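New here. Invent one.

***
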Amino acid sequence: MDNKDPTIRRILVINGKGGCGKTTIATNLAVTYANQQHQVALVDNDPQASSTYWAEQRSPDLKKIHLVPAHQRANMYQTQTFHNRLAPNIDRIIIDGHSNARDRDLEALIKQADVVLIPLLPSSIDIRAASRFITNLLTHRAFRNSPRPVGVIANRVQPNTQTHIKLEHFLGCLDIPAVATFRDSPVYIEAAELGQGVSDMLNSRAARKEAPAWRDLTRWIDEQSAPSARTVHDLRLRPRAAKRKVDEQTLRA
């Protein structure tokens, strides 16, 4: 997966804490791109194999998502590279990273990606964990050597609640952009059980309500430049300097 073709986008979905909705983001992003006529590969790096299970439920009548079960070991007659090979003409690669990735594992995932997405739930525990993970990511040697765009996704949000307000405050303190917000909607559970994404379910009012945010997310990803020798400061997209420290009193509220 080291293809340097500039038309290809490799998107890593990752967080250091489990249960943040990585697979929901990865699968729905894959479906959104597939329905935009891209050739999409979904790389399952998570030992829980949630993306693999999702792909097994997907109907052959829907847009094809090419699964790469990278969490599985190659058999004795294959190399791992051959096992993880991509189908021809793939131009969007969605990587469902695993939450326990550390040091060399994290380095390998970073090097595979052109863009990094970090899903985040609106709770104090998740905010604290995400703050540590983001710091580890931005200071990792692989990221420092070749910075790439990073975006945070507010996931399973219930608008106008205290947890939503707390999350918005945290996102406002970051030096990296919040690129999407997705509601805590049962349509995602329904889609996961069917091997679908909300972009497949436009006969559903709830899915139609969510679909524009997914299109906006793919647009943001496609607008990002490939990794280069730019500094982390150059990648900060906010027009003003952001606070570096989260208000501890807000997190305890």
Observations:
- Residues 198 and 207 are 5 Å apart (CA to CA).
- Residues 9-237 form a domain with the Rossmann fold fold (CATH 3.40.50.300).
- The mean pLDDT is 84.
- The longest strand covers residues 150-157.
